Amino acid sequence: MARPKKSFKNLKLLQINIRVTLEEQIILEEFSKLYGVNVVEYIRIKTLKKQLPKHIMSGINRELLIELSRVGNNINQLTKRANQNNSNLNGLKDDLYNLSESLNQIKKQLLNDSKTN
User: Fold this and answer.
1) Full residue range of the structural domain in which residue 67 is found
2) What is the pTM of this model?
3) Stronger pLDDT, 52 or 67, i.e. the higher one
4) Higher pLDDT, 25 or 49
């Protein structure tokens, strides 16, 4: 049985091309995987203010979520310290580097978990 024909109004006849950096492409691909849609559909939904489907990642590792919350709290505290006091920016730089490494580890673990699910 063939699928029903779309009305002319619903046919997607026009094409728009965009250029993105490699980093932007990776981000778009990660978010589209997270929502279970392709990159084009993700961009369409985000730009046209449509409702995104629920996250597909159902089995989020609780420990990773807790660690991610801790890292977020640390970033907020460092930002507050940086805004209050400009005297020890080198220490803040080291702390931010360590937090960045923690975030990268969490991201890798989350992506590996989502591939196995």
Assistant:
1) 59-114
2) 0.41
3) 67
4) 25
